[in-house]
Amino acid sequence: MIEFTFWDIVRNLLLAARWTVLLSLAAFVGGGVVGMVVLFFRISENKWSRRIASGYIALFQGTPLLMQLFLMFFGLPMLGLRIEPWTAAVLGLTFFASAYLAEIWRSGVDALPRGQWDAGASLGLHYLQELRLIILPQAFSITRAPTVGFLVQLIKSTALTSIIGFEELVRTSNAINNATFEPFKVYGLVALIFFVMCFPLTQYARTLERRAAH
Amino acid sequence: MAFAWLPGAAGDIARGAVTTVLLIVVTTLAGTFLSILGAAGRRNGPVLLKRAIGIYVEVMRNTPFLVQLFFIFFGLPSLGIRLDPVLAAILAMTLNMAAYTIEIVGAGLDAVPVGQTEAALALGLRPRQVFIKIVLPQALKVIYPALTSQIVIMMLESAVVSQIAVRELTYEADMLQARTFRSFETYLVVTLVYLVLSMALRRLLVTGGRRVLGAGVS
Q1: What pTM was computed for the model?
Q2: pLDDT tens-digit series, residues B43-67
Q3: Any idea which fold B8-211 has?
């Protein structure tokens, strides 16, 4: 029987938290890239691309993330891909994030007055130039607060990847708890670590919101 | 893909779905009630209560639901509070949802013009009557769409309580796939059940809200 001191527990949890941070960043970046593609479909002038994108978003916002992770974890091997918890976690969270980010940014695009498009067109810009130079910069800038808010949600969502076996903060804490039988202390510390990661971002999102309101 | 197991599993899936629905119904009622108290306390209560509610909201909003659930189910027994899985799940879901809806209800209370309160007081209503009969109904009408979204989000989040062996939809899926060895198909079917549940729940809340509150929800 190994004895765990308080600092052993804290050290192990902090080491595991690195994976939570890494997973959050990977999913945020991946979700941003895929989310851009979904956004293009969502605001396209073609009715069918818009419908497909809306369906994609509704699918991910209408089912539990846990189910999405399970489908990733058990589904990809059926396509002949060897998959590990890390891959399933990153891919699952990437698609999850892409749906939410696309919807957030779409609200930004919709909020811009029609005149922005018209002005771009009258300057002789074609569709992609309009998007790149006029529409998207403004849409991103007015949706910065909800985007940061979603990052907080994403960090919290990484906890679910423990269930498909990815060794992040929560899975490590389960293992430590099984060895120490101190759930109050262990899960309290895990909550504290998540809080330290999320709270500054929440505050930042609030600052952005207040700045946008003025 | 093979779905030969499906007819024999329909009963289990239906039972799980009923439990999921029951969990969210209880959570919605308890969570809304708690958030009305919380939002009122945060506005009119003593300073200490205001600060406590503020801390509670921040802590719940900045930690994962799964960790809250584990803390309540595994952690609280060391303080002598031992809950069975269903109670722990309902408690965790209610506390989690209330943290979000306290802010929503609060925003609704702020949206009701002060003149409404003044007029009601001038008519001789007591402060409690003013809150229950005048301010609260108007506030609920304003926030109803946001409340609806939060309820649907909580329903989807409730999949996690399978981890403490509450026999809801996800738990039944876990059991089924262990029996049938058809993991992907099982989770696919159950995911679709969740999709139907969340769409039906939203529809029900929207039509119900329109009828009861006259809230303009689309």
Answers
A1: 0.93
A2: 989 999 999 999 999 999 999 999 9
A3: MetI-like fold (1.10.3720)
